[in-house]
Design a protein that fits this description.
alpha/beta, globular, single chain, three-stranded parallel beta sheet
Length: 448
């Protein structure tokens, strides 16, 4: 009889699970405990190396190991551990699609949330740059930049070499980074008098047939057309749709900085009014995948016992996820006016990790004379990572394989559910058509 201990399994067929973040406990901010866990996880990652192609965090780690005297993690200076942390932008792909040691595996690896813990400790110690705090304050930036006169000045400044040089020094924004326009005529202003229209709400699967749009900072201030297209498509399909009465940033930009207290304050603003809408019979959709993920995953992990957050988690949807539920119940209109040809569809990381499947592709594939080719690789933008001085070039490098694939497809359209990823990729392409959001394409196909 063999009494030797059973060796750890290489991977698992079990579904990945996430543990609560426990960010309110004192030991979460214990730096000695952090470094002990970093060394444990870095050592496992060094022995595996499956995530080397995802982002620059892993090549940074492996280079540190390979250039050390021992060729092991114990040869890496503890102060260099932070170099790995600084390269992680919490895309979550290593956890969801690469790592064989995530829970319930006994090694219990959650690399993104370990990086988040490290960032939170940095933030609490005051070691995160003030410029990064400013550019992650998307609500404030949008409100200020949409004010008349300031609006024209801000939009003009992004094309001025002198102003871009100043922004590089003051805000740590790379002079060549693509910056979006800010709209004085925001989505909320455009839809100020909009009333939800549609036939009597009909339930379909988990959907109740009435939708409140959490527009997000980006769709409100930077690309209001996305919100307009979404409402037009939803109401064309008999789904009464309106904006939430008010909203603050979902908190994802602050989460990525480790600013968990601000995430908590934003939660206190957003959750009560979303719960009120849900209790009144409305479902919630958001125009950017990161915002959906914030309410579906990150806030529930930060507040696992908060029933209101769990209620929002059950009733918030990706827009195309929502439409596909309607289609399965034969409630989605399929009388399209035109085909789209070949579409290169980039799958955003924060949509992939929602584990909902390729819902955007499935809906767009209903359109006749349309071929959807998916690109499942990170664009490298993230938000702040794609514009900062020290990470802009790395971000462009990460995007290069995505751009290369899109070029080979010779597609009529390049779209991504993440508008920032779409811009990052489109900047490297000679596009035939201007639409880069799949909801805009769907509206075009409907002819509405």
């Amino acid at each position: 009889m063999n009494n030797s201990p059973t060796p750890p399994r290489e991977g698992s067929l079990d579904a990945p699970t996430r543990h609560p973040l426990n960010w309110k406990k004192p030991e979460f901010y214990n730096e000695a405990g952090l470094f002990e866990e970093l060394e444990r996880v870095y050592d496992i990652c060094h022995g595996c190396r499956r995530c080397v192609s995802l982002c620059d965090a892993f090549p940074t780690l492996f280079d540190l190991v390979d250039e050390s005297e021992t060729f092991e993690v114990d040869g890496v200076a503890k102060t260099d551990y932070w170099k790995v942390v600084d390269e992680c932008y919490l895309c979550d792909l290593c956890y969801q699609v690469k790592c064989p040691y995530v829970p319930p595996h006994e090694w219990n690896i959650d690399f993104p949330h370990l990086m988040l813990r490290a960032k939170a400790i940095q933030f609490r110690k005051g070691e995160r740059k003030i410029s990064h705090k400013l550019i992650s304050s998307t609500d404030m930036a949008g409100k200020i930049s949409s004010i008349p006169v300031i609006n024209q000045t801000v939009n003009a400044a992004k094309n001025s070499p002198v102003m871009r040089k100043a922004a590089s020094k003051l805000l740590d924004i790379h002079p060549q980074a693509h910056l979006p326009d800010f709209h004085q005529n925001t989505l909320r202003k455009r839809l100020k008098n909009h009333q939800a229209r549609g036939i009597q709400a009909l339930e379909a699967g988990p959907t109740r047939g009435r939708v409140a749009l959490f527009a997000t900072c980006y769709c409100n201030f930077n690309e209001p057309g996305i919100g307009e297209d979404l409402i037009a498509v939803f109401e064309h399909n008999g789904i009464p749709t309106k904006l939430t009465e008010k909203e603050s940033c979902c908190g994802m930009p602050k989460l990525e900085q480790g600013d968990l207290e601000t995430v908590n304050r934003l939660r206190q603003k957003n959750i009560p009014q979303l719960v009120s809408l849900i209790d009144d019979g409305w479902d919630i959709v958001a125009g950017v995948p990161s915002c959906v993920l914030m309410f579906k995953q990150e806030l529930p992990l930060m507040f696992p016992d908060d029933e209101d957050i769990l209620k929002v988690k059950r009733h918030i949807f990706d827009p195309f996820e929502y439409l596909l539920h309607r289609h399965k119940a034969e409630l989605l209109r399929t009388e399209f006016q035109q085909g789209l040809g070949t579409v290169a569809w980039h799958v955003p990381c924060h949509q992939r990790v929602q584990n909902i499947g390729p819902k955007t592709k499935q809906v767009l594939s209903l359109i006749p004379d349309t071929e959807i080719n998916a690109i499942e690789r990170c664009s490298g933008h993230d938000g702040t990572y794609g514009v900062r001085n020290d990470t802009y070039t790395k971000s462009q490098k990460i995007a290069r394989p995505v751009i290369s694939r899109a070029k080979k497809m010779e597609a009529d359209y390049l779209v991504s559910d993440c508008p920032m990823a779409a811009t990052q990729i489109a900047d490297g392409l000679d596009l035939k058509n201007g639409e880069t959001n799949p909801m805009s394409l769907l509206r075009k196909a409907y002819g509405i």
